[in-house]
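Hello Y.,

Per our agreement to keep a running log of every chain we model this quarter, I'm adding this entry. I've kept the format consistent with earlier entries: sequence first, then predicted structure.
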Amino acid sequence: MDNLLDFFVSSAYAQSAIGGQQGGGISFAIMFAVFFLFIYFFMWRPQNKRAKEQQNLLDSLTKGDEVVTSGGFLGRISKISGQYVTLSVANNVDVVMQKTSVVSVLPKGTLKTID
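Predicted structure for the entry above:
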């Protein structure tokens, strides 16, 4: 019966203490530091840089700027009030949107070339 049981379930043996601890605390600390540096330089820092650039773009918006919104609207800013901008998207058509929906500022005269 024992031979049959050994066939299906392997025996567990204790490891000898002669080899000592493998890996140790120093290698774990080094691995943790490398992981943190990877997260910082490849994820966190670029994201902060993009967020800062977007905030600078939103702070620099002025009346008359031609912009693109996250919804795909192209328009000229006709009014800025607090966290909202009013875009002129066509003749006598104004749309009020949040400032955060502005994705980029277009060069002057872009809207005339599209029409």
